[in-house]
Hints:
single chain, alpha+beta, NE0471 N-terminal domain-like, Double-stranded beta-helix, 7-stranded mixed beta sheet, 20 strands, binds fe (ii) ion
Amino acid sequence: MMDVAVSDAGDFLALKDDQKQHRFHAIWLRDNATDAETRSPINGQRLIALRDISPDVRISSAEIVGETLKVTFSPESKSVEYPVSWLRAHSYDRAASDEKGWLAPGIETWDSALNQNVPSADFGLVSSDPNARTNWLADVARYGFGKLEGGPVKDQALMQVVELFGFVRETNYGRHFEVRTEVNPTNLAFTGLGLQAHTDNPYRDPVPSVQVLYCLESSAAGGENMVVDGFRAAQRLREENADWFDVLSRYCARFEYAGEKGVILRSRKPMIELAPDGELIALRFNNRSTAAITDVPFNDMDTYYKAYRRLGEIIDDPSMEVTFRLEPGECFIVDNTRVLHARKAYSGTGTRWLQGCYSDKDGLLSTLASLQVTSLEAAE
Length: 380
Ligand code: FE2
């Protein structure tokens, strides 16, 4: 049973049930009114600005009728109704926390144990069945990567993958880029130089938040793809040494790419990025494009380098990696703000041809959210 009580000054109210109290400020409630004068019934966008609400807004009365809270505000003498379920879902009645590196709900970090259960789906099914697409995108949101199998072996087939959830992010590398490797006996000796796992293009701001890598040819042995959960790596660093986690999140690194004429891309961003309230939101790690780091004060640089080295060791630890081989017609996508990728060395001769492109996570999450709403509505 829900009860409501208004504060003496009318500046907030408290919804109470047996378990919990949810307090809401008058200004917050008024700003979040859903009546047709406050929000467009057509597109849900707010029709007023904060300047249209009196700074002295107060709750003059509040009552619960069924599953609805009715609130009357002064000095407007305006009445607004709120579903109690909506208020419960949007409660902000909690104490401040200073925890660093917490994860948003729904994010699940992983290590090599996920090798037994690599998130993957059939290309044809995901293309034709909205439920299969929803499940696959939900896996990508949860784990930060996902594989697709059984796709067409055709130039630019990766564009069909992007169309499943969003739009290509075109860059100076084009709408897509080619990753062709010919492994022959004369250069076989060099193929042992595996790339360290990395996130792509940290020198861009904003960084491309999704990468697609699509396999078209794969006759060389070896060359498996490998992914590492950067969020798990950051958590491990924090567990081992909170100061090291802190120094990589508190100071910006610098990244640069100037490898072709007319292109000088530079960014100034931390390797471990936290939201202002401590949420872990991104990891950037790329030895090839890290520029001279000059934003760390002299007294902290030694600690910074120790932390940077240790983060790299954690990323290189085989117990962190998930490995899979891409056959022609198979691809994977990664959340490039979280999951690092690498290619293992080749152990035989042959060719390997992949095509890659970038896209963005906001579009992917938008597609996922609207598919989920549609399937909820269908179930009702
Ligand atoms: Fe890469």
